[in-house]
Write a structure and sequence with these properties.
Bound molecules: adenosine-5'-diphosphate, magnesium ion
Structural class: alpha+beta
CATH class of the largest domain: Alpha Beta
Strand order of the largest sheet: 11-10-9-12-13
Radius of gyration: 21 Å
Oligomer: single chain
Number of strands: 13
Number of domains: 3
Helix content: 25-40%
Largest sheet: 5 strands, antiparallel
CATH architecture of the largest domain: 2-Layer Sandwich
Order of helices and strands: EHEEHEHHEHEEHHEEEEHEEHHH
CATH superfamily of the largest domain: ATP-grasp fold, B domain
CATH topology of the largest domain: D-amino Acid Aminotransferase, Chain A, domain 1
Number of helices: 11
């Protein structure tokens, strides 16, 4: 942190493999900061808990994939570095919570069930005795889950991204085959097939999964929420089975029509302010005129210029503007406004009083 007021504020960006957006962001923030901000890629080593990091703000794009960063960021926040996204929020959020919150807010969302771990008895120091509160699912109980959600359904991790471990399942047989076996795709351990299989099995059996109703959509939207502003994109998800990597973003408000467009904007504002997100993406599968919120756990938004081309300049501008405001005016920081509100209300079931049963 920067003790002298006259010295520029320092922004550190924490990034993974991406390049393009972080470099552009550094240039954009420095240009908007007019000499009052220095922006750079953050540099992190083995850090003492007793010492603040030399950044006024860290914009984190990778700690979800590297737990050591995440541990460090929470302590950095405690020392006074403003961390975006809020590392306490990202540590606590998941897709099941998202589905519950959407429901309470009265936003259409797919029916979603959280499942006991398929490897419940394989965990260290856990026996059937440890899990006496868990109702073991017999055929009838599984049947009730399948009746509630329906087939096809989506089996996916409570907390992950980039379609990791996301499966569309069409029958109980297909569901159990995936649920009981290695569910993760891709190589987890290099050059050691036996170890790789063991790790995939372990992850498959110990990752908390949800089973979710399929929304057979005709239209799809991805919407950014950036520092309070909303951008709505027409989106075509990639056909992963055909090897497509990127979905297609189009700037086409007419595709939704004014009423649906406004509804999407309102829902995005609502969920993000209730959850306390500053920068996030929400995905809607739209059936008829009904937009179902299927995923808003995307706090490391897609800002790849190749992928989001028609929106890239606007996203860059909005992120740069918001981070610049946060650096130069602590009152602009949405976490400060939300600190007592969002999570206190969530924890006491008051985040969505209008939709309470
Ligand atoms: N309930 C659902 N109904 C229809 N399509 C879904 C549903 N859940 C997921 N999908 C499809 O799978 C993709 C990945 O699922 P998602 O929950 O967004 O995981 P991730 O966080 O990995 O992106 C979505 O973008 C969508 O195309
Ligand atoms: Mg998604």
């Amino acid at each position: 942190m920067n003790p002298k007021r006259s010295e520029p504020k320092v922004l550190g960006i924490l990034r993974g493999r991406e390049s393009g957006f972080p470099e552009d962001l550094i240039r954009a923030v420095e240009s908007q900061g007019r000499g009052m901000i220095r922006a750079e890629m953050a540099s992190i080593g083995a850090e003492p808990a007793e010492r603040p990091l030399p950044y006024d703000l860290i914009y984190d794009r990778i700690s979800h994939d590297y737990p050591m960063y995440h541990v460090l960021l929470r302590a950095a926040a405690a020392h006074g570095t403003y961390v975006v996204p809020n590392p306490f929020l990202t540590a606590a959020d998941d897709k099941f919570l998202g589905a519950a919150v959407a429901h309470r807010l009265g936003i259409p969302s797919p029916r979603t069930v959280v499942l006991p771990l398929s490897g419940s008895l394989m965990l260290h120091d856990i026996t059937a005795h440890s899990l006496r509160n868990l109702r073991w699912l017999d055929d009838k109980a599984w049947g009730a889950v399948f009746d509630y959600v329906g087939f096809p359904a989506w089996l996916k991790p409570c907390s992950a991204g980039g379609w990791l471990g996301v499966f569309k399942v069409h029958s109980p047989e297909e569901f159990f085959r995936i649920y009981n076996q290695a569910i993760f795709h891709g190589e987890m351990i290099k050059n050691d097939p036996a170890a790789d299989q063991a790790v995939r099995n372990w992850l498959g059996r110990t990752t908390v999964m949800i089973l979710q109703q399929d929304i057979p959509w005709e239209r799809f939207a991805r919407c950014w929420y950036i520092g309070g502003e909303v951008l709505v994109a027409r989106y075509t998800p990639p056909r992963k089975k055909d090897g497509e990597v990127y979905g297609k973003y189009q700037d086409d408000p007419g595709f939704f029509g004014p009423a649906l467009y406004e509804r999407l904007r309102r829902y995005v504002q609502q969920v993000n302010s209730v959850m306390g997100y500053e920068i996030n993406t929400a995905e809607f599968a739209i059936r008829g005129d009904e937009p179902y919120l299927i995923d808003f756990l995307n706090f490391t938004c897609d800002f790849n210029p190749k992928s989001i081309a028609p929106f890239y300049e606007r996203c860059l501008e909005l992120v740069a503007r918001y981070l610049t405001r946060c650096l130069t005016d602590p009152a602009a920081r949405l976490q400060a406004q939300n600190r007592d509100r969002a999570w206190g209300l969530l924890a006491t079931g008051q985040a969505a009083p209008s939709a309470r049963p």
